[in-house]
Design brief:
Length: 53
Amino acid sequence: MIQTIIVIAVVTGCVAYAGRHIYKEIKRNSQCENYGCAGCAFYEKCKRNKKIN
């Protein structure tokens, strides 16, 4: 019984972590007006350059 509870807790934690990570990535990428840059490694640098210009 205890083993089942531990496994359920670990799986729930993993699903929650993955869901949070996916949500944050979708939110970050949807803020970009140019969807070609979604997931780009230089997204933050481009965002800073837009503020400067």
